Amino acid sequence: MPNKQGNSGKSSSKSDSGPSDYAIHKSYGGWPNFMHSHGLKTYNSGDVAEGKAITASYRQHDSSNASQSQSSKGKK
């Protein structure tokens, strides 16, 4: 059953890198708060698309930071 975000809480990306959409939105207190904190409206389809794009860029940023952190641990 889909949650309020319109997905099952799983990441919409093909790979399992980075946090899920649910985890990103939960850190803001949920999808409506995530949207509001970025100045977006949950009832505007263009804003919803932008919110999803922001979520994807956060996931990409988090996964690239995680891979950089892993590679720097091996170098001393």
Characterization of the model:
The chain is mostly helical and 76 residues long. 55% of the residues lie in helices and 0% in strands. The protein has three helices and no strands. It has helices spanning 21-26, 31-37, 45-73. The longest helix has 29 residues, at 45-73. Residues 5-14 have low confidence and may be disordered.
What does the secondary structure layout of this molecule look like, with pairings?
Blueprint: H1 21-26, H2 31-37, H3 45-73
| Terminal Cα span | 47 Å
Coarse morphology: elongated
Unreliable stretches covering 5 or more consecutive residues: 5-14
**Structural class by SSE content:** mainly alpha
**Count of distinct strands:** 0
Number of helices: 3
Gyration radius over CA: 14 Å
The main pleated sheet reads as: none
Helix content range: 55-70%
**Share of residues in strands:** under 5%
Order of helices and strands: HHH
Query: What's the average pLDDT?
Result: 80
Key features of this structure:
mainly alpha; elongated
Question: In short, what is this structure?
Answer:
This protein has helices at residues 21-26, 31-37, 45-73. It starts with 20 loop residues before the first helix and ends with a helix.
